[in-house]
Amino acid sequence: MTRIKTDLYLGDCLEVLADFGDDSFDLIMTSPPYADRRSKTYGGISPDEYVNWFMPRAEEFLRVLKPSGTFILNIKEQAVDGERHTYVIELILAMKRQGWLWTEEFVWHKKNCYPGKWPNRFRDAWERCLQFNKTRKFNMYQEAVMVPMGDWAEKRLKNLSKTDQNRDTSKVGSGFGKNVSNWVDRKMAYPTNVLHLATETGNRKHSAVFPKSLPEWFIRLFTEENDRVLDPFAGSGTTCQVAQKLLRNSVGIEILPEYYQLARENIKPTQYQLFEEDQNAIHYTTGDH
């Protein structure tokens, strides 16, 4: 029997994380309030002040993340006065100066995004998922997110040219390189860094909920069962919900009481037993075979 623990805290993650030890988490997966967005709920942060607001929190994330862990930051810049603001780019550079490695950038393509336009641009149908690490040697379980080969393989691999069969394999360790014949008879393939996920969610009580499939993909990629996941901007608790389902321990921190309460409702299935509750925290544990 595996015992899985989920902790929810009400408060500012900058303050709550001060009580956590160094190297506590295997994965940090979160989507913080975007600059000047959700101003009716989160108050909004000026794009010009965003980096200054975020960096003290990033310092705590750096401290509590294990050397083998990963930080995934779901964020999107916005247009201000007719042009893209640079606060996300500035944030990346500031985090690099803080000691983070900007290892990868995943693109979440919202495949069901509805159309729209402004005078000088079209509607966004994507968001960034930035990957940061403390060290170059981090845990990554690529086989856990493999996908079916797809219809293209049947056509593309039917008649291979000599070039397809003789090109050098990759020098960077990808496993296949440009030798296309390596794909013959394979049922599964590694995905790209573009995630085609719909935006539907089962929660209409929060103004900015991402789909469960988004944290699920990253939890599978960067953790194993019994690992520990942190969402410091927990919102309605989606990341913690998915972590429970995948038998990962998790911690969620939410600053707004109404969303903290919503997360408590979302993360409290009847099979979970409450073992501790106080004014600003609630903790669950469960046994799963």
Can you characterise this structure?
There is one protein chain. Helix content is 26%, strand content 29%. The chain has 289 residues and is α/β, with parallel strands linked by helices. A ten-stranded mixed β-sheet has the order 12-6-9-3-2-13-14-1-16-15. A hairpin with a 2-residue loop joins strand 7 and strand 8. Helix 3 (50-64) runs parallel beside helix 4 and helix 7 (213-222) packs across helix 8 (238-245). The radius of gyration is 21 Å and the shape is globular. Mean pLDDT is 83; it is low at 38-42.
Query: Spatial order of the strands in the main sheet?
Result: 12-6-9-3-2-13-14-1-16-15
Percent helix among the residues?
A: 25-40%
What is the H-and-E element order?
EHEHHEEEHEEEEEHHEEHEHEHEE
Mean pLDDT: 83
Please give the largest β-sheet.
10 strands, mixed
Which regions contain 5 or more consecutive residues with pLDDT less than 50?
38-42
Structure summarized in a few sentences:
This protein is α/β, with parallel strands linked by helices. The chain contains nine helices and 16 strands. It has helices at residues 13-16, 39-42, 50-64, 87-98, 151-156, 162-166, 213-222, 238-245, 257-266, and strands at residues 2-10, 25-30, 65-75, 79-80, 83-84, 101-110, 117-118, 121-122, 126-133, 147-148, 188-189, 194-197, 228-231, 249-254, 273-278, 281-288.
How would you summarize the topology of this molecule?
Elements: E1 2-10, H1 13-16, E2 25-30, H2 39-42, H3 50-64, E3 65-75, E4 79-80, E5 83-84, H4 87-98, E6 101-110, E7 117-118, E8 121-122, E9 126-133, E10 147-148, H5 151-156, H6 162-166, E11 188-189, E12 194-197, H7 213-222, E13 228-231, H8 238-245, E14 249-254, H9 257-266, E15 273-278, E16 281-288
Parallel strand pairs: 1-14, 2-3, 2-13, 6-12, 13-14
Antiparallel strand pairs: 1-16, 3-9, 4-5, 6-9, 7-8, 10-11, 15-16
Helix pairs in contact: 3-4, 7-8
